[in-house]
Amino acid sequence: MPEFLDQEYQELKTRLDELVGVLGVLPELQPEVLRKEVVAKSKEYGIFQLTQPQELGGTGAGPMALTIARETIAAANLPGSGYVFGADPGLLRNLTGEARAEYLEPVVAGEKSWSFAFTEPSGPDAPQKQTYATVAGTDLKITGQKSFVTGGAHASFYAALVNVEGDDEGDSGPAMVIIDKDSPGLEIAREFRSMEGGDHVELKFNGVIVPMRNVIGSIGEGMPRAMGNIGEERLQVSALACGMGLWTVDHITERLMQGHRSGSRLADREGVRLRYADLRIELYAARSALYRTARLAEVAESVEEIMNEATATKVFCTEMIGHVVDTAIQLAGGQSLIQGEPLEKLYRRARSLRFTGGASDILRLSIARGKFDFGAGRL
Ligand SMILES: Cc1cc2nc3c(=O)[nH]c(=O)nc-3n(C[C@H](O)[C@H](O)[C@H](O)COP(=O)(O)OP(=O)(O)OC[C@H]3O[C@@H](n4cnc5c(N)ncnc54)[C@H](O)[C@@H]3O)c2cc1C
């Protein structure tokens, strides 16, 4: 439990711990029944609403509350924990007019779901040209491909980054565009699963027509729109990683204190203690960074102000959890790699975190660029 939490955060933490206690004693349930049960309990404790905007019935929690919530839920490592938080509208948050009613409100109400289509294909067969749109009257005509769209098979629509090629008079540049899944010319070219269990699709846009009003913000604003929520997202991935770290360290502590076939507890071996201490040191450092950045985010006037800190924290915390789970597996022994064992599952989840929201080395480049080119980022 981080120290110096204000009263309101301590109360939130108490509610979270109570919810974890209730979810922890649920019997084994079918996935859909489990989802409904977890959502109902989470709403009862006022946790589900934390990720949703106030004007749409949520409580619109700030970065610190969300950090505490996400870390606590991840640290419980319970089945169904993915249902605890209501759909976060992310970059759809600022939609206005018809688009708000058609896309944002149903997402928050759980009636529609959406996926983020940003990553372009890579590898030798990747198209040389990135996804682009030409202007056709009051519409955009979109052509291209997106390679890694999480949840894309079940999504009602996609928010995709496209490069608009305007004519001499028209606007041009990157734009985030909402594309309905049932749009003519939109093809799910491939469905696949990644090792942590996520399902994804590859999308092809074969001259897909979308009305200009589906542009989020305006043409040219694509990158800031796509990245508008990225500071918060990086903080939340970091909270997830730290929560997973808390669970892992508790788990391995218990294992090492149990008997071992050698006759003495592994916890009594000096070599094991050294490795074990490293886990605690790394987790402590990661959590310190996490809570410092959450505090900075709480007082920041804009997300740009904490972008470098959130990015540094994301790299550090996701690399920390990779190393912590890997070391815990080594200390726990080969049995922990049996499919379905908790450390085996966490290992797969931890690995994907170094890609989601940006590969670690790309984020490192962005931190260096922040300092050299913009003089941004505190130490
Ligand atoms: C579980 C999971 C879920 C995902 N969900 C989504 C999603 O919903 N929507 C979406 O759009 N994307 C999603 N992605 C894709 C993710 O955002 C990308 O994998 C990530 O941004 C890296 O891009 P890439 O895979 O194309 O790798 P590449 O860009 O090809 O990079 C591969 C490696 O090359 C090196 N490298 C690349 N460029 C440079 C450079 N300029 N300088 C130095 N080194 C470099 C780095 O080591 C990098 O890790 C998901 C990925 C995973 C694993």
Explain what you see:
The protein has 379 residues and is of the alpha+beta class. The protein folds into three domains: 7-91, no CATH class; 114-221, Butyryl-CoA Dehydrogenase, subunit A, domain 2 (Beta Barrel); 229-374, Up-down Bundle (Butyryl-CoA Dehydrogenase, subunit A, domain 3), CATH 1.20.140.10. It is built from ten helices and eight strands. Strands 1, 2, 3, 4, 5, 6, 7 and 8 form an eight-stranded mixed β-sheet that branches. The longest helix is centred in the C-terminal third of the chain and has 30 residues, at 270-299. It is globular and about 80 Å long. It starts with 6 loop residues before the first helix and ends in a 5-residue tail after the last helix. The mean pLDDT is 94. Flavin-adenine dinucleotide binds next to β1, β3 and α10.
